[in-house]
Amino acid sequence: MDAAAFFRENLLAWHAGHQRPMPWKGERDPYKVWLSEVILQQTRVEQGLPYYERFVVAYPTVRHLAEAPEDDVFKNWEGLGYYSRARNLHAAARYIASDLGGVFPDTYAGIRALQGVGDYTAAAVAAFAFGLPYAVLDGNVYRVLARFFGIETPTNSPAAKREFSALAQRLLDSARPGAYNQAIMDFGAGQCTPKQPACATCPLAAHCVAARSGSVARLPVKARAAPKQSRFFAYAVFYHGDTVWVRPRTGNDIWQNLYEFPLLELPEPPGDTAALPGLLLSRFFPNGAPPGTALRGISKPYRQTLSHRVVTAVFCEFDFPENFKVADFQQNNLSGFQQIEQFKLKKILAVPRIVAWFWEGKTVTFGDI
Ligand code: SF4
């Protein structure tokens, strides 16, 4: 038996005794398969599970998702991060409802053409929902293949995708693509784990190059990633009574459509956060803040790590006087902001995680800088 046949057969045999029960496993409804795959991208299963269950209840069919208001979809997505996934999900659902008569595409090319669907998701939906012979390639698959076959190509290099895709496709059990894909992903998650894989009990160990050559800890190889970009945000939280001002983020940047307070992005970390309130007021009220505006407090710095960036944010809170005129606000550099009741923020309007952290922690002492 050659290595490929050994790998395939033992993998499937292993899976027969190591199934992880999940609500989407065995699911053949392409909409639900797609939903689960999009939710689980760059997300741990434990974290994604409640979101999947929430979405399936809130939007049981692709038409329900298509007809939902965007804010509603974002609200249900809140906390999961990578909001472009929610935006793409919603756009693709609308496209299916309006252009495809509500019928999910049933070919790899049709699925791959949906907004936000890449090679991995297209292969997963094609194989799980329609039994089409497409091999998935995710982090688990890269790791298992790199170790078993002793592949030294850095998995984050441009050449790796071609090499690993071709190998994954060659290994696929095309009579049972769904079962095979599930098996290799579960094997990577449960047996050939990133740290301390269970080589001693592994049914593939006899032909595993990494295990035989002592290179398990070294494989897969990853090229050094570029350092994350640091960004520094100063937010102005303007209160008037029980209201506050926010707007959705626009432009080709992080957190599109999520609501935030008036923002001043700084080119470098503020040496002294005590200077931020003055900077914010002069940015948003170039002709002077409304008389009687009072600084309520300066938050501690909050830090959120994203895939390519680290965002540090400080929130300066201001109270407008009772006689404050909304027109004063609009006439300054604040047009486009909406005055909303405070309870709506986070409860009804989706916000970036860093804003949620501030909003939830508001009762803690300020000034911890
Ligand atoms: S022997 Fe170890 S490294 Fe090789 S496939 Fe099995 S768990 Fe992974």
Give the biggest beta sheet: 8 strands, mixed
CATH class of the largest domain: Mainly Alpha
DSSP strand count = 8
Quaternary state of this entry equals single chain
Number of helices: 16
Small-molecule binders here are: iron/sulfur cluster
Strand content: 5-15%
Global mean pLDDT: 91
- End-to-end separation: 65 Å
How would you describe what is shown here?
There is one protein chain. The protein is of the alpha+beta class and 369 residues long. The chain folds into two domains: 3-137 and 162-186, Hypothetical protein, domain 2 (Endonuclease III, domain 1, Orthogonal Bundle); 229-360, Nucleoside Triphosphate Pyrophosphohydrolase, CATH 3.90.79. It contains 16 helices and eight strands. Strands 1, 2, 3, 4, 5, 6, 7 and 8 form an eight-stranded mixed beta sheet that branches. Helix 8 (119-130) packs across helix 11 (177-190) and helix 9 (139-149) crosses helix 11. The relative contact order is 0.11. The structure holds iron/sulfur cluster. Iron/sulfur cluster binds at residues 144, 147-148, 191-192, 197-199, 202, 204-205, 208, 210-211, 216.
